[in-house]
Amino acid sequence: MDKQAYRIAVLPGDGIGPEVMREALRVLEAVAVRFDVCFQFDEQPVGGAAIDVMGSALPEVTLMACEKAEAILFGSVGGPKWESLPPDEQPERGALLPLRKHFGLFANLRPSICFPSLAKASPIRHDIVGDGFDVLCVRELTGGIYFGEPKEIRDDINGRVAVDTMIYHESEIERIAHVAFNSATGRRNKVTSIDKANVLRNGILWRETVEAVAENYPDVQLEHLYVDNAAMQLIRRPRDFDVILAPNLFGDILSDEMAMITGSLGMLASSSLGKDKGGGLYFGMYEPSGGSAPDIAGQGVANPCAQILSAALLLRYSLGLTSAADTIDCAVREAIDAGMRTGDIFTGEKDTKKVTTAVMGEAILAAINEGN
Ligand code: IPM
Ligand code: MG
Fold it and tell me: What whole-number distance in Å separates Cα of residue 241 and Cα of residue 243?
């Protein structure tokens, strides 16, 4: 009998997306051989690349490919070329946000791991970063000010006015809070919930709801921080954090800050999880936390690790291929420990070497093929 083929929608997108995706697919093919599984990649255009060839950032064929798949492996979208289009047609608003909403991908998990061997790449003082840290940002992804209505620019007697609406239903806060507390349970048992309860009504409901959910998790310690204070504390004491629970906009901002503190945006993967498929598996979209980096696109120098680690998250959360996911994670670590560095994480340290996207990919592949 033929072995089961896992169908994966592959959306490389714009900028460095296609370059780093190429390495991720090679890695997936290598683990498929090693673990005797079969992946069927359905590659489709998205974002600016799709606008250029099909006139829309999220063409019907792309959406259909995602519908039919077990999970989506996403590259990145956007770039200066498409910034003058009407807002709703641009890659971010025309593809990324609709994909999140369409598939109900409400839970965005962004692990910020500062590898010990990369601690020097952090812009934060060594005594603060220490031998690295591991913080997980759990960001609400389908609600809040990103999607609330009305959302418009309109004319008023005094001129133009812009309106964005921040709205959260208690049930939306509850379900993301459960994700955060469950995640903390498998980690260091601490949740830091982010709000702006001193100004926003949203913050009051957020805080009350998170407190109520916390009662189901007596072993998890809960702290609340206002978002402005959290921005400071993350820089002052990053190692004190375990799981950060944040509404959409605050999570967007803080996860970039956390990424910078690790010193290596190009290392950070992310997963956006939606429908529970049972057995601890979810439909999800997996993408690097960094953007399309148009400034270095096409040069073959981007760091493929975030895309490769995103593929590992896909295997873990959507397919349940835990050993294959562990193998990829270890292979990335091995390549880094062996001194391989793309430009974004190269600090000139002894025994390290500045390499291209492809060489980094090959080092990871070699670690997978040689591993036991
Ligand atoms: C992210 C990005 C997106 C967001 C943009 C590209 C719309 O910054 O995934 O963090 O704001 O969510
Ligand atoms: Mg962002």
Answer: 6
Give 132-148 pLDDT, tens digit per residue.
889 999 999 999 999 99
Q: How far is the CA of 257 from the centre of ligand 2 (A)?
A: 10
The CB of 20 under 6 Å from ligand 1? The reply is: no
Locate CATH 3.40.718.10 in the chain: 1-107+271-372, 123-261
Ligand 1 pocket test, candidate residues 72, 96, 147, 289, most atoms within 8 A of CB:
96
Looking at all shown ligands, the one closest to residue 97's CA atom is 1
Structure-block tokens of residue 238: 């990053």
- Look up the CATH superfamily of 123-261: Isopropylmalate Dehydrogenase (3.40.718.10)
- Mean of all residue pLDDT scores within the chain: 96
How much is the pTM?
0.95
Q: Whose CA is nearest to atom 10 of ligand 1?
A: 252
Q: For ligand 1, atom 12, name the residue with the nearest CA.
A: 252
Atom 8 in ligand 1: residue holding the nearest Cα: 252
Count of other CB atoms within 10 angstroms of residue 300: 14
Q: Which CATH number applies to 1-107+271-372: 3.30.930.10, 2.10.77.10, 3.40.718.10, 1.10.3720.10? A: 3.40.718.10
Quote the ligand 2 centre to 351 CA distance (angstroms). Answer: 33
Residues designated as active site: 146, 196, 228, 252, 256
Residue range 306-343, pLDDT digits in tens: 999 999 999 999 999 999 999 999 999 999 999 999 99
CB 257 within 8 A of CB 234: yes
